């Protein structure tokens, strides 16, 4: 518990860190970059001054979007003078005239550089009804105004909790409306822990992948099964993981799943000199990309050739062009080699079909995804599938029941309610989330016996015989 | 086998989870030469379990079969011997996320109870974290310590038999997170504060009654905790069913020809139904952040 500088080093904000800005319930993930403007809640701010401060420090935004550490409120709650309070609201009329300050007056106060606290004091003094409000209503009024006029931002270290709250609050569409408590269920239901081998298929901006990686703490391996041209990992970046975490992350394009399952995926280099073969692999991998990108290699080269022909007379330029072309080709070869190496590494992990966990959360139909990827799991390992909609998961459930190989199948969702807890005023919040999506979870089992797929203890009773038949 | 590391084959001394059917599981300690009775007959450990692959089907003496599963904290939660009321996976999940647990986290917990949450915490903080768990009931503390050994997680946990409200957690300034599930959590808030790291950490208190929540939140605010928030989470299970809906017969439509095909008497659809009854309340979860002190 020594209190020296070295102890604190890991808790200090550094240039280049990924951080989360927070004000009230609003979060925003950013990277600390010097002299870079960041928009937060419609305000331009610079984060230069936060470097060197401790995480979880609250800053005040002063003129020019500069941040200054907020001074400790001497007595934050009662610093607003409240003299008198009414007993009930029988004499309060909502005529829109109770506040004597106009919008412009408040703007002027702001321009004069008044702090949030001072503005609130002004508002109270100029409100004709404030002193008639009950003590509870006064508290509520102050709290509401504080939220509006307090100009602070807290810098947090990103965690799964904070990023899940942030994505759900800011951009639920980007994460398929996956609510944070649903994500929490997924991580436990899939028994995500250090040292295991987990398959992740997600189109939630990388939030699910990042959460899985956080729970694995850099131990074990995560294979991101990705659709399209390349894996999406914006959300993973936001976690600001140490470099070695990325060593456990592998990627595998789903367009090779069938080949992988058939055992026909070839990741070896037959002849290192034959470039065409590399290009073949590349073209195949980019199948799912938009047309324009797909042909990225050829038009470039074609245009180069045309240029070269025009400049035929100028040997010097021609030579340089050729050199550049050579460099480019070299870069491409390196890139392709890297890609091939990654594919081979991921394929080697999948080959044994002995993964320890499977997490699916995507905008794709979950059924083909689940039925394809579940084949890579060892027996007695958990899997969990998220869908924003229930019906596709019913289909998954039915298909899994038909083909066997799983037990403990459960289709669930969670209901989440927040509470206001105040002396004599405790109650659920008036608004709650209407739904956080659905989960299908289960455990794989060995399918060696050639018994009929239907278990002797069917979980689903047969539908009752119809009485109408008698008619 | 360990609760924090998978293995492929069942070995002597392992704890396995026998899956008897939907919502019916039992833990079995594998011992050379031992037998376990199930409703489908006996399982002979030496021939039926040892050396078998986890997830295999095992045929019992009466001809019925069961599946033998690798233990996980979630399977343990639904199969463990209850010595107290326990926390279930739905609450455990949100506690784990909201306490920001991950490999390496140091956690203080009280009471240990039957160890349902403890196993989930250990799974998440392994291999470099630690759990300090405090249970005031002596036999319960002994029993759970024995289970931690059997489950091969004892190197990650310290069990203390003391009263957290009086004696605290037995450690100071080391915890990233504190979890309280005791009758009067407000009495332990000061000890929780002391157990948490100087630079701060997270706290969660689980209470079934709103009066407890009220007092705990007040104590949390008094001790300088921030971001105090109370939530309740419930699991809703959807049972997948094929249902048949009869169609009404309104008689033949006027104008329709004689050859009109009679419509079917009913249609079959795949849908889900809620269970007739479900747990409607477990407890309120109050979370808070300890700021740097």
TrEMBL record, chain A:
Its main location: nucleus. Heterotetramer. Residues 69-97, 283-333, 443-471 are annotated as: Disordered. Residues 315-333, 457-471 have a biased composition (Basic and acidic residues). InterPro entries: TRM6 (IPR017423). It holds the Pfam family Gcd10p. GO terms for biological process: tRNA methylation. This is tRNA (adenine(58)-N(1))-methyltransferase non-catalytic subunit TRM6. It comes from Kryptolebias marmoratus. Belongs to the TRM6/GCD10 family. It comes from the Eukaryota.
UniProtKB/TrEMBL annotation, chain B:
Residues 64-251 form the tRNA (adenine(58)-N(1))-methyltransferase catalytic subunit TRM61 C-terminal domain. It catalyses: adenosine(58) in tRNA + S-adenosyl-L-methionine = N(1)-methyladenosine(58) in tRNA + S-adenosyl-L-homocysteine + H(+); an adenosine in mRNA + S-adenosyl-L-methionine = an N(1)-methyladenosine in mRNA + S-adenosyl-L-homocysteine + H(+). It is found in: Nucleus. InterPro entries: SAM-dependent_MTases_sf, TRM61_C, tRNA_MeTrfase_Gcd14. It is an enzyme of class 2 (transferase). Residues 249-293 are annotated as: Disordered. Its EC number is 2.1.1.220. One of its GO terms (cellular component) is nucleus. The keyword Acetylation applies. It comes from the Eukaryota. One of its GO terms (biological process) is tRNA methylation. S-adenosyl-L-methionine binds at residues 114-117, 135, 163, 181. One of its GO terms (molecular function) is tRNA (adenine(58)-N1)-methyltransferase activity. Gene3D superfamilies: 3.10.330.20, Vaccinia Virus protein VP39. Keywords: Acetylation, Methyltransferase, Nucleus, S-adenosyl-L-methionine, Transferase, tRNA processing. Pfam families: GCD14. The keyword Acyltransferase does not apply. Residues 265-274 have a biased composition (Polar residues). Belongs to the class I-like SAM-binding methyltransferase superfamily. TRM61 family. Heterotetramer; composed of two copies of TRMT6 and two copies of TRMT61A. Catalytic subunit of tRNA (adenine-N(1)-)-methyltransferase, which catalyzes the formation of N(1)-methyladenine at position 58 (m1A58) in initiator methionyl-tRNA. Catalytic subunit of mRNA N(1)-methyltransferase complex, which mediates methylation of adenosine residues at the N(1) position of a small subset of mRNAs: N(1) methylation takes place in tRNA T-loop-like structures of mRNAs and is only present at low stoichiometries. This is tRNA (adenine(58)-N(1))-methyltransferase catalytic subunit TRMT61A.
């Amino acid at each position: 518990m020594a209190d020296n500088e070295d102890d604190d080093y890991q808790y200090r904000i550094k240039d280049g860190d990924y951080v989360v800005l927070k004000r009230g319930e609003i979060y925003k993930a950013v990277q600390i970059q010097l002299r870079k403007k960041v928009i937060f809640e419609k305000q331009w701010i610079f984060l230069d001054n936060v470097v060197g401060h401790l995480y979880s420090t609250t800053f005040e935004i002063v003129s020019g979007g500069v941040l200054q550490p907020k001074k400790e409120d001497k007595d934050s709650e009662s610093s607003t003078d409240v003299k008198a309070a009414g007993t009930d609201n029988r004499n309060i009329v909502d005529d829109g005239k109770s506040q004597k300050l106009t919008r412009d007056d408040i703007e002027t106060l702001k321009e004069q550089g008044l702090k949030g606290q001072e503005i609130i004091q002004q508002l109270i003094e100029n409100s004709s009804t404030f002193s008639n409000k009950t003590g509870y209503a006064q508290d509520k009024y102050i709290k509401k105004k504080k939220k509006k006029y307090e100009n602070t931002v807290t810098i947090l270290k990103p965690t799964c909790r904070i990023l899940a709250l942030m994505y759900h609050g800011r951009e639920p569409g980007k994460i398929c409306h996956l609510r944070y408590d649903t994500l929490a269920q997924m991580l436990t239901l899939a028994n995500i822990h250090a040292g295991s081998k987990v398959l992740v298929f997600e189109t939630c901006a990388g939030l699910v992948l990042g959460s899985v990686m956080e729970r694995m703490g850099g131990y074990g391996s995560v294979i991101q099964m990705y659709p399209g041209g390349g894996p999406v990992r914006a959300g993973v970046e936001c976690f600001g993981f140490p470099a070695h975490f990325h060593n456990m992350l592998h990627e595998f394009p789903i367009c090779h799943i069938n080949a992988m399952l058939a055992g026909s995926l070839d990741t070896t280099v037959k002849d290192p000199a034959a470039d065409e073969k590399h290009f073949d692999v590349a073209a195949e991998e980019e199948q799912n990309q938009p047309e324009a990108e797909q042909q990225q290699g050829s038009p470039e080269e074609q245009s180069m050739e045309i240029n070269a022909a025009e400049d035929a007379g100028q040997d010097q330029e021609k030579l340089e062009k050729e050199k550049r072309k050579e460099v480019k080709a070299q870069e491409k070869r390196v890139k392709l080699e890297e890609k091939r190496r990654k594919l081979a590494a991921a394929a080697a992990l999948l080959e044994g079909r002995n993964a320890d966990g499977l997490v699916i959360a995507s905008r794709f139909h979950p059924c083909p995804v689940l039925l394809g990827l579940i084949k890579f799991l060892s027996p007695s390992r958990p899997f969990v599938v998220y869908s924003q909609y229930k019906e596709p998961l019913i289909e998954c459930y039915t298909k899994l029941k038909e083909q066997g190989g799983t037990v403990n199948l459960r289709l669930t969702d969670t209901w989440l309610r927040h509470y206001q807890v105040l002396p004599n005023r405790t109650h659920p919040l008036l608004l709650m989330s209407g739904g956080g999506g659905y989960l299908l979870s289960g455990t794989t089992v060995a399918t060696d016996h050639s018994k009929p797929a239907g278990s002797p203890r069917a979980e689903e009773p047969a539908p009752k015989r119809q009485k109408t038949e008698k008619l | 086998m360990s609760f924090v590391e998978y293995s492929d084959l069942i070995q002597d001394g392992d704890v396995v989870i026998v899956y008897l059917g939907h919502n019916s599981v039992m833990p079995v300690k594998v011992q050379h030469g031992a037998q376990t009775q199930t409703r489908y007959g006996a399982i002979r450990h030496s021939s039926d379990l040892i050396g078998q692959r986890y997830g295999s089907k095992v045929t019992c003496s009466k001809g019925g079969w069961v599946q033998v599963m690798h233990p996980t904290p979630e399977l343990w939660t639904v199969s463990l011997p209850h010595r107290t009321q326990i926390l279930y996976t739905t609450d455990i999940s949100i506690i784990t996320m909201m306490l920001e647990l991950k490999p390496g986290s140091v956690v203080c917990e009280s009471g240990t109870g039957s160890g349902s949450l403890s196993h989930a915490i250990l799974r998440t903080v392994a291999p470099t974290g630690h759990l300090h768990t405090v249970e005031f009931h002596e036999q319960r503390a002994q029993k759970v310590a024995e289970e931690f050994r059997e489950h091969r997680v004892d190197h990650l946990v310290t069990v203390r038999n003391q009263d957290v409200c009086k004696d605290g957690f037995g450690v100071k300034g080391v915890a990233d997170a504190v979890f309280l599930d005791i009758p009067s959590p407000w009495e332990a808030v000061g000890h929780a504060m002391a157990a948490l790291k100087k630079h701060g950490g997270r706290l969660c208190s689980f209470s079934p009654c709103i009066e407890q929540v009220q007092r705990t939140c007040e104590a949390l605010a008094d001790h300088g905790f921030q971001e105090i928030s109370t939530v309740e989470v419930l699991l809703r299970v959807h049972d997948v069913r094929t249902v048949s809906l009869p169609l009404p017969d309104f008689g033949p439509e006027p104008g329709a020809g004689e050859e009109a095909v009679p419509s079917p008497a009913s249609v079959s659809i795949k849908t889900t139904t809620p269970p007739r009854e479900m747990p409607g309340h477990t407890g309120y979860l109050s979370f808070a952040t300890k700021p740097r002190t």
